[in-house]
Amino acid sequence: MLLCRTENLGGHAWQCSNCNHTKVAYNSCKSRSCPQCGWVGVEEWAKKTATKLRPRDHFHIIFSIPHELNQLWIRDTKLMIKLFFLAVRQTLLSFSQKHLPGEPGAIMTLHTWSRTLNLHPHIHCLFTAGSEDKKGNWHDSGDFLFPIRAVSRYFRVKMLYLVREYAEELGTKTEVQEIIDPLFSKNWNVFITQKYPHGNGVIKYLSNYVRGGPIKNSRIVAYDGITVTFRYRDHRDNQTKLMTLPVEEFLRRFAMHIVPKRQRVIRALGLYAMKGKGIVELNELLNNSIPNALFFSQQEICPVCSTLLKLHKNLTKKQLQKYKPPPLPFAA
Q1: Are 9 and 27 in contact (CB under 8 A)?
Q2: CA atoms of 94 and 213, how far apart (whole Å)
C-alpha cells in the first residue's frame, strides 16, 4: 500500500501515433484495505449483488464483542474472525428456526475499526424482514424480528464457548479462562434497528463498510512527517472533531485492520447463500488482490489531436521512463 500508484510498482503507458503525445499511469497495489483502490472490487460486487437481493424490507442487526477479547483477536485474528462469524451464524439460525416459518436471507459484513481507528470488531447483518417457505410463499415478519435480550444472551454464550473450545490456539487454557470468565456476566451489545426499506438501500449501506479500509484519504487533514491529523465524528455528541497521532501510532492502528490473506469479510446465510442464487460466489471480488481488469478504464483519446491512444500494458519502472512526458517549462 505504501508503494501504491508509484513508479516502483510499474504501470501502463498510452502513446499517440500521430503527434507522439504520451500519458503514464502507475499501477495500484490492488489491496482491499487500500484507501486509494480498495473500493474498486466493492463497486463491482455491489452491482452484481444488487441483482440477487430479494425486493423486501430488511432489518439491520449489529453484533459486537467486548474489548476484553481484543487481546485474543490480536494474537490470532484469522481464528477470531472465524469464531465470530460462526457464533453470529449459529445465533441467527437458532432464532430463525424458532420465530420464522421458512428460510430467511442474511448478508454479514465484518467491521473492525472504531471512528478513531481503535480495534472494535463487530459484524453488520442485513436480515430479510421475513422468510420464504418451501412452496415459495413469502411470510413477512412484521415490525418485530427477534427478542433482543434473548439474542444477546444466546450470542454471548455461543461466542465464549467457542473461544473456550479453541483456547489452546489462543494461549493457555488458564489464561483464556481468566479473560472470558468475567464476560459471562457482562451485558453484550447486540442491536436490531427498525426495518431498512427495500433492497437497493441495503447494498448501498453495506458498501460503506467494505470499501477502502478503515480510513479514506479525504479524512486525513495533515501530515508533517511526525504526526498525522484526521477527522472523525464523535458518536457521543455527533460532532466532527480532529485527532492527531504520532505516525507510529497511526500506522499501528491502521495495521490492526488489515484483513489476513484469503479471509472473507462478507458472508451469506439462508436465501442469500443458496448455490447459484446467492451471493457467496461474489466473495472473490473482495480478496486481497483485486482483479486487474477492474482497473482499466475506457479507451483514451489524445488531448492534442483527438487520435485514439495506443495502450502499452504492464511496463516495468525502467520501461516507463521512455513514455514519461518532459517536465513543463516554468519561469524563474
Answers
A1: yes
A2: 32
The pLDDT tens digits along the chain (332 residues) read 888 888 888 888 888 988 888 888 888 887 777 777 766 666 666 777 777 788 888 898 999 999 999 999 999 999 999 999 999 999 999 999 999 999 999 989 899 999 999 999 999 998 999 999 999 999 999 999 999 999 999 999 999 999 999 999 998 899 999 999 999 999 998 999 888 777 566 676 677 666 667 888 889 999 999 999 999 999 888 899 999 999 999 999 999 988 887 788 889 999 988 665 555 444 444 444 445 554 455 578 888 888 888 888 888 988 888 888 766 555 54
3-state secondary structure 166-204: CHHHHCCHHHHHHHHHHHHHCCCCEEECCCECCCHHHHH
Show me where the domains of the chain are located.
7-29+295-323, 39-214+257-287, 215-254
Q: What is the pTM of this model?
A: 0.81
